[in-house]
Specification:
alpha+beta; 4-stranded antiparallel β-sheet; globular
Amino acid sequence: MFFQKYFPRSFCREYVEVKGDSSQFSMFMATVLGIKPLMDDWIPVAKVDEFKKVCRKYRLKVREDIIFLGIPKDKVSSSVLGKEYITTTSAFGVPLDSGIDGKVHLFISKDRSLLKKGMWYPVIIKGRMIIQPRIDSLKYGYALGYPECCIKFYRKYNNWLKFSHLYEIYRNTQNKPSFLCNPFLKDTSFSYIYHMPCGYDCFQTIKLAGRLRYEIEKRESGYVRLTDKYLKMPFLVFYERKFYAFEGVMRGRFIKYNKVYFPSPDKAQDIYGKVLAEGDSLELQGMMLNIYRKNKKIKSISIPFNNNFAPEYPFLIQFF
């Protein structure tokens, strides 16, 4: 099935075996290869010691942060102070020695000094949202090895209360979108980047992702074939947690398709998947989504404008 677990033949195979899934597989390979200076991950408490052994095999250093207890945002009590600032990470944080089962947040690098620069994520502790200092957010991208142009763009537009970051990237794209700049699948098993580029044609991102792709292909060519295929699909994008991928082709404001997928891990946002699956083509006109089957319109959806948290500015895009 599309976008699901990828099991490597040999290179970094232990990462998937221990973790139990292949999310961030490419980022782990990038860290092992020395292309990515620092990454972070979440590993079940019971698997941490085994995971550290895998990292030692690949000469990686590990620093443990805290235990995360994930919770859907809509399940967080209204009494939690700062609940409105929860973004893609929604969790309670507890100490490592609490004895509570959850996922340990880890920082991973070949350079031990970089482990001190790991940014802590916003988590709920004792009834309130604890948010990292802004300076940590501004500097963290450099430790992760992201292009400076993308870091500067992120600083300006990664405001979930004001902007749709993905749409601003779309507006800033001047040339044909490159699949190497596709960030939509970063939370699946298939992506060459984990950052938001400043444009879907960003030269520095193409250079960085292209280098990683080249090195992976020499070791795990099957992964590259699948990843290239998925990244080049047409996408209907609403915001970072709500987007669809299609087996098909995009022409202007139309997508003709055979199948539709919702790759986002936030399945609660899949509100259009059922009706899209009933059609074989779609048309996006501003905030109006028209769905067709055999050239006959079967549904028109007026997309509500959300000007509060995570505003939605829908757009169509296909990468090449």
